[in-house]
Amino acid sequence: MASTSKMPSTSEDDLEEEFEHFDDFTLASSWERFISEIEAVCRKWLADGTKNLLKKDAICLNISEGLYKVKADLKYEMKSYCMEYYFGTLNDGKGKDWSCVLHDLQLFFGVNEFLVSLSLIKKKFLVIAPQSASGVVLDGPEASKLLSAVAIALSNCSSLWPAFVPVHDPSRKAYIGIQNMGTLFTRRFEADRIGSQVPVKLMHLEGLYELFVSKFAFSNEDLSTHLFEVSFKMKLTYCTLPYDEDDDDDVQEPEAGSTESGGSPKSNHHNKSQWDDDCPWSEWYSSEDPVRGFELIAVWSEKAFESSLDMAELENASPLEADDWLIFPCLSETLTEDSDGKRIGFASQLRLLVDALEMSMEAKFIEDFVSEHSGPETLKSSAVIPPPTVLDRVLKDLFHEVEGLQLGFSDGDHKNSRTIKGAPLESLFGQFCLHALWFGDCNIRAIAVFWIEFVREVRWCWEESQPVPRMPSNCVIDLSTCLINQKLHMLSICINKKRQQEQESPKCGEQKKFPSHVKEETQVKRCLSPRDGKTQTSSGERESLSRPDVVKDSVGHISNSGHSDTVKLGDAKHSACIRRGSAGVVGSMMLLKSQQNMHAPFTQEPPVMTEDMHEERLQAVEALGDSFSFSAQLEKDILSSDMSAFKAANPDAVFEDFIRWHSPRDWENNDNMDSGASHDNAIKGLTVEWPPRGKLSERMSEFGNSWRKIWNEAPPLPASEQKPLLDPNREGEKVLHYLETLRPCQLLEQMVCTAFRAAADTLNRTTFGGLKQLTTKIGQLNLTMAATLRCLQTSNLSIDTEDIQDLKRLCAIFEHVEKLITLAASFYIKFMNAPRLLESIFNDCYNFYAPRMGTGSTASEVKKDFEKKQKVGRREREIAASMLTTPTANQSWRKVLSMGNLLNGHEPTLREIIFTKHGHLSENYYGGHAPRGYQHELETYRMYISGTSNYLSVALAVASCD
Question: Which InterPro entries does the annotation name (predicted)?
Answer without folding.
Answer: Rab3GAP1, Rab3GAP1_conserved
